[in-house]
Specification:
By secondary structure, this protein is an alpha+beta fold. Helices cover about 35% and strands about 15% of the residues. A hairpin with a 6-residue loop joins strand 1 and strand 2. It starts with 10 loop residues before the first strand and ends with a helix.
Length: about 300
């Protein structure tokens, strides 16, 4: 098996011979693992690479054709040795090396489906709890010397109640980090590993830089994801200034370090600070709710006395 075996794998129109990016390739339909499981793939979610079974069938699966010229397979082989409980935010998965390597996962909802339970929006504590999940997930990877290298909003999923039927290992409300296409596992950990040449990324590097401490790059991208989540869930009642400060702190003030980056915190330090910020936010939220209750009570008393 060589790197020329792909992906991407594309279906071809039998009449014209042209690529059908919405079709299911024959080599995937006839893959030994797909046949063994009896999976019927319906549509590509990432043409040529990622495919899903129909969502009206339970359980619903996602199948990814792994690249042979990356570390993704070896990283997943390493990660499956670890418990799936937090702080591990790797999605439950199975690897098949029977034929071309495939990654088989339960279907989990996109992060954009996450929304507050009430129209009032998230409290600061609730929002910081979400950011804490992401931070501890990145810290877990870094603790094992794994840098994601392409972390972004679209590489984050959330287990919604309707997803739980797809795999009993899913946890409702848990955020999951996916897509280790460009990920690397290093000999040295955070604070020791020096800058490397960046691989293709969905988030543009600051100041057009092409070299980055890989762990610091993950933290920078984490800041971007946190900022996106905050922006989508801020309103007139909740500006989430603590969360906004945290996201900016993660992104840091880039100075173009060529060695170990000192422009932003490590994921471990960031997680510790966020735990303290979340505790502070909890106290502020409780005091605010108490103040609102007292004002309403005084208002009712005043109205009654005025009758």
């Amino acid at each position: 098996m060589s790197t020329e075996d792909g992906p991407p794998w594309f279906a071809k129109n039998p009449d014209t011979g042209r690529i059908d990016i919405l079709g299911i390739p024959e080599q995937l339909k006839s893959h030994p693992e797909i046949l063994r499981r009896g999976l019927v793939l319906r549509e590509p979610s990432k043409p040529g690479v990622v495919f899903t079974t129909t969502r009206v069938e339970n359980p619903c699966y996602v199948v990814k054709v792994l690249k042979l010229d990356s570390e993704e397979l070896s990283i997943y082989e390493y990660l499956r040795q670890h418990d799936l409980a937090s702080p591990n935010h790797t999605i439950p998965f199975e690897l098949s090396t029977n034929g071309h390597p495939l990654l088989i996962m339960p279907f989990v909802s996109w992060l954009m489906t996450l929304s507050p339970e009430t129209n009032a929006g998230w409290t600061s504590y609730q929002l910081l709890s979400l950011l804490l999940q992401l931070t501890e997930g990145i810290e877990f990877l870094h603790r094992h010397h794994i840098a994601h290298m392409d972390y972004c909003y679209d590489n984050t999923l959330v287990a919604q109640p309707e997803d739980l039927v797809n795999d009993k290992r899913l946890v409702e409300g848990k955020l999951y980090i996916i897509d280790f296409d460009w990920s690397r596992r290093f000999k040295d950990g955070p604070g020791v590993q020096r800058a490397i040449t960046l691989t293709p990324t969905q988030i543009a590097p600051p100041n057009g830089l092409k070299h980055f401490d890989p762990y610091a790059w993950d933290v920078y991208c984490l800041g971007h994801v946190c900022r996106d989540i905050i922006r989508l869930n801020s309103g007139k009642k909740h500006t989430h200034r603590i969360a906004q400060w945290y996201a900016s702190w993660l992104m840091g003030n880039e100075r173009g370090c060529t060695g170990v980056c000192r422009c932003r915190p490590t994921a471990r330090h960031a997680r510790r600070v966020l735990v303290l910020l979340r505790s502070l936010a909890y106290v502020v939220d409780v005091c605010w709710r108490w103040t609102v209750s007292v004002r309403r009570a005084l208002g009712r008393i005043g109205a009654a006395c005025g009758r």
